[in-house]
Design brief:
alpha/beta; 7-stranded mixed β-sheet; two-stranded antiparallel sheet; 11 helices; 48% helix; globular; transmembrane helix; cell inner membrane; transferase; transmembrane; acyltransferase activity
Length: 290
């Protein structure tokens, strides 16, 4: 009962906070950055270790500079996600435009379903929300439900306010079967870490042995739906741009693990180009191969 009360109180606080203009939220974000980085040392050891393992060629001064930039961005990202509750369609389109969307829309207009993937890079929540505004087909983002069912139900409702249909990761194949007769846009996070039991494919990612989810490839090869990568670029604070990049247009003709390597290498290059905007505080490498 106490947990439910705290969950509802937290939701009320987020709803009220989301009504503030972004300029005020970013001032709060600057204060949160100081608390996270200098006062509470929030996951600094995790971030430092991840960065040093990913970029062994960089000097410590470079690593620290990326680290600080990451935490400053993380603080802003938290308040941008808070804004998710009250952001309008017009503001979402203005802050998160899509380039080359016609490459995907062409398939959808012909009644052909498409698979897209992206990562926890930039503001993935705004990206998921905005995607529902840019394409004619219903978007089905695959997500991992939150542990708190009350907060998860509320957050799912917010994520779906522009027409998305969020699908829990373990319900993916059931959703595909249920929608096989309509035109859809299923979207996947290509940096989700599989459980140890599901870690069936390992590769080198950012200089480390890394288990990669095979769901995107399995579905693409089985359905032969074209795969696009939604490459997010941070333009400036609160403004992004998405490039719809054709990754694999004929999945049925690919070799085993070829698509998995394609999207993994694509993300790796994105991170190397601008490392501060990936989710470094996540324990991505807590599992290691036997």
């Amino acid at each position: 009962m106490l947990k439910k009360g705290f969950a509802h109180l937290g939701i009320f606080f987020i709803v009220v906070l989301s009504l503030l203009p972004m300029s005020i939220l970013y001032l709060l974000a600057d204060g949160l950055y100081v608390l996270l980085y200098y006062v509470f040392n929030y996951r600094r050891k995790v971030v430092r270790a991840n960065l040093m393992n990913a970029f062994p060629e960089k000097e410590l001064t470079e690593i620290v500079a990326i680290e600080k930039k990451y935490f400053k961005y993380l603080a802003a990202l938290i308040f941008e996600i808070v804004k998710l509750n009250s952001i309008s369609k017009e503001e979402a389109i203005r802050r998160f435009p899509f380039r080359n969307r016609e490459l995907i829309e062409g398939y959808l207009q012909r009644g052909e379903s498409v698979l897209v993937c992206s990562a926890h890079y930039g503001n993935w929540e705004w990206g998921t929300l905005s995607c529902g505004l840019h394409f004619s087909a219903v978007q089905y983002p695959i997500y991992k439900p939150l542990n708190n069912p009350i907060f998860d139900a509320w957050f799912k409702k917010v994520r779906c306010k522009f027409g998305n249909q969020m699908i829990a990761m373990r319900q993916t194949f059931r959703a595909l079967q249920a929608t096989k007769d309509i035109t859809t846009l299923f979207s996947f996070g290509n940096d989700q870490a599989p459980t140890r039991e599901e870690s069936n494919y390992w590769t080198t990612f950012l200089n480390q042995p890394t288990a990669i989810q095979l769901g995107i490839e399995k579905i693409a090869k089985k359905t032969n739906r074209p795969v696009f990568y939604l490459r997010v670029k941070v333009i400036k604070r609160g403004y992004y741009e998405v490039d719809c990049v054709p990754l694999c247009l004929n999945p049925a003709e690919t070799a085993e693990f070829e698509i998995t390597e394609m999207h993994t290498r694509f993300l790796e290059q994105i991170i190397r180009d601008e490392p501060a905007y990936w989710l470094w505080s996540h324990r991505r490498w807590k599992h290691q191969p036997q």
